[in-house]
Automatic annotation (TrEMBL):
The protein's name: PREDICTED: charged multivesicular body
PANTHER family in alphabetical order: CHARGED MULTIVESICULAR BODY PROTEIN, SNF7 FAMILY PROTEIN
The keyword Coiled coil is annotated on this UniProt entry: yes
GO cellular component: cytoplasmic side of plasma membrane; ESCRT III complex; multivesicular body
InterPro entries the record matches: Snf7_fam
Source organism of the structure: Prunus dulcis
Superkingdom of the source species: Eukaryota
Chain coiled-coil ranges: 326-353
Alphabetic keyword roster: Coiled coil
Amino acid sequence: MEESERVREVIRKQVGDDWDDEVMSRARFKALSGQRSDWEPTYLFWRDLILSVARQLGLFIIKPSHLNNQWFNRGGLTPLSLDRVLFEMYNEGEIVLPSVDLVDPTAGRLSQVFTRLTNSMIRRSRTTTPQLLMSQDRLILTSLLKDKAVEVVKLLSECHWTSSCIVTMKRFQDICGGAYEASALLSYLSAQGKARYLSLSKGDFIEGVKVSLSASSVPSISSLDCDVLHLIWTTEKLQQQLNVIDQRCQTSRKSALACLNSGNKKVALRHVRQLKLANESRENCATLLNRVEEVLDVIASAESTKKVSEAIQIGAQAIKENKMSVEEVQHSLQEIEESIDTQKQIENALESTSLYTVDEDEEGIEEEFKKLELDIEVNSAGETEASKSAESLIDSLSNLKLVDDGLARTPAVQGTVETIRNNKTETPVLETA
């Protein structure tokens, strides 16, 4: 569906038949004049319509010229109030100017702070007019920019299980919808402390973004981050090469088959040789890609191990400060494991009964349920006692107050408690949330 058709669809849904009503259209298409109480309903109408259309199109950046010439052009009649509407939206913070309100995300942190201060002074000193806004090439809708930033972080969270991630600039641009959109989003996320730009030069100039996927701010860029970016960039290049080789293999295979069908065995043999060389090249490329991905997996596992180690240290400190002996902890953990094991046995029994179909013998189904009830009665006493011990340990760990070098330790302890609740391992360990 073309953009103009989608815009008309949104207008029909939001405005209805009033859009074609001549009397209503004349009132809405007039310029805003008089006191605010006189034109505020018209302003709210156009503001909400602009936001609705942009949201439906998946845009947070709009072009003022499109509003008049494409979005709201009604048979050559265009709204005379759009410049004033954009001006009011700008004054209320619903629109920002990229050149004034956003900083270059590729600049250093100090440079970004200085630019924000400078732009803030420029914005206060100069008078922004409706005509100036209409002459801009692009305007950014603040609310939709924030929504898009949340969406981007959510998409990255679905592909990464760590608290932060690193992606190449190309990947970030693809997620954001383009280079200009990526720059605006990176500027916004950087201002919020949720993203950082990084780059390196190793033969090729490589750009990337480090994004926080948790509620905390994104950590500073380290040398390891640069190495990870280089590895990720390498995997993307290798994957691109594999795609090219696959296309080449497909072409050679089709050509060989066509030549064989036409009886030209000599040419078909040449295509088969090309196919063989392409397959060998693909194998080498795939092997290298697997090695690079293995290195990335090792790095991710090392990061996880580090967090587990920190959690174990926190747990040890908690036990020490709460004056609990190791024997008490081991005994409580054992009871928790027995409780979990009992619960799993019950769940397995329930799952086994759910596998019966309607066509099976009803007496057999009743017999299974009787056995299940008997198992529940036998295990209920031990389960209740283990649950009390588990809750006692959980409450004891949850009430601790720990501070270490500015790090919030209590949430980590709570995370270990949740892990103890939900996971059964052969050797109990404390894990981070």
